[in-house]
Amino acid sequence: MASVFLYHVVGDLTVAKPELVEFLETETVESAIRAIGGSTESGIPVWRRRSPKVVVENSEMRQQRFLGILNTLDIVAFLARVSCLEDQEKAMKTPVSEIVVPNNSLLREVDPATRLIDALEMMKQGVKRLLVPKSVQWKGVSKKFSILYNGKWLKNINGSNPAIGITNTSQPSSSSCRSKFCCLSREDVIRFLIGCLGALAPIPLSSISVLGAINPHYSFIEASLPAVEAIQKLPHDPSAIAVVEPTSEGQYRIIGEISACQLWRCDYLAAAHALVNLSAGQFVMGVEDHVTIRRGSDPENEVKSAAAAAAAAAGDNNNNCNSASNGVASTRLRRFSSRSIGCFGNAVSPNLGSSARTVYRGRSAPLTCKVTSSLAAVMAQMLSHRATHVWVTEDEGEDEGKDEDVLVGVVGYADILYAVTRHPPTPTISS
């Protein structure tokens, strides 16, 4: 195992990290949208309000107050419900406690002296955030583990005996002076590791297929299906659904994605509107302003079918399709454009006629890599795009002159953490 995991501690990653400002469950969806714009991994931790009767709060109490993580895909899926489309103003004032999925195992409070390897093991088990106390003078670390923290070298309280310093520091204490915290995400850990690639050699230069970092289990939806079907069962890690087209060989080619990081800083209401009314392919590729919802179809029927699909996705079995379509029809009189969603920036050529292709590719192109890509390249790709994952493709049909990138899997934060902590692959010696 690389020494960087043993000689570094969580406190090294907290330098210059801002103080955590708790986002309470009583806040509205509108406030959550503003908060997510400045967050990492396209999500924010949601907390229950601290009881005024509690004078000193220990780590167990804080852990119980943590509710879960709310991301952009959760918000768009909520706004795509029929009731929300009927009254968008009311939907934006809804408390986030009605949207966030309760799961307090996604966050763990740790001491700044916790070894980096221990923090990585927590994240490999599903932890997405680490709550670390700030401005805490922590001791009990030997000079061997004395890493620069907050601009000062740590000093062992028992400098004469370095062995005493290696103690169990993974459990945070309940000191009453710890009132300020910062939050570390998996993105912060990957960003730290990419600065230590030399210490991780030869793993970073190995391909993701050799390291076993490709996850073949991913969520996908065919481009011809209604986009609203993608949110019937939202994936958790990564929070992304691949939009695919079948190939002649019975495999799938990725053309886009519906994900939390793709919807980050978008127009949430317009995205929810389009999610209900467009197919998955149209949603990720974009549709021109003056094109009917689906070419060759009746717009009124499209509105009714879209409303019915939205009612099914929201679990609203009490409303029949006719009443749902009547309630939503008033908000769907306009044509849809990916420009209004805010996810696509490329303009459409003015020379395209009415018979030309009506979709265009903007920023909707999914982030992909090859099975032969190195782990370092994938890490840099994710960090440069602030993405939580990269789709893995494999060229099929090169001999026939085709350009079909067949989707074979996905690489997420958890897959990278597993790869960097495994034993380096043994080189094969050819006879």
Could you walk me through the main structural features you see in this protein, from its secondary elements to its overall organization?
The chain is an alpha/beta fold and 431 residues long. It has 16 helices and twelve strands. The strands form four sheets. The protein has a three-stranded mixed beta sheet with strand order 1-2-3. Strands 4-5-6 form a three-stranded mixed beta sheet, with helices on both faces. Strand 8 and strand 9 form a beta hairpin. Helix 12 packs across helix 13. The two termini are 29 Å apart. About 26% of the residues have low confidence.
Structural class of the helices, strands and pairings? alpha/beta
In this structure, how is the largest beta sheet organized?
A: 3 strands, mixed
Cα distance spanning the termini: 29 Å
Our estimate of the beta-strand percent is 15-25%
> Total number of β-strand segments?
12
User: What is the count of DSSP helices, taking H or I runs of 4+ residues?
Assistant: 16
Question: What is the ordering of alpha helices and beta strands?
Answer: HEHEHEHHHEHEEHHEEEHHHHHEHEEH
Question: Can you give keywords for this protein?
Answer:
3-stranded mixed β-sheet; alpha/beta; flat; single chain; 431 residues
Topology summary:
Elements: H1 4-7, E1 23-24, H2 29-36, E2 43-47, H3 59-65, E3 66-71, H4 72-79, H5 82-86, H6 88-92, E4 107-109, H7 116-124, E5 129-133, E6 181-185, H8 186-193, H9 197-200, E7 219-222, E8 240-246, E9 252-259, H10 268-277, H11 280-285, H12 299-314, H13 321-329, H14 338-341, E10 368-370, H15 375-384, E11 389-396, E12 404-412, H16 413-420
Parallel strand pairs: 1-2, 4-5, 7-8, 10-11
Antiparallel strand pairs: 2-3, 5-6, 8-9, 11-12
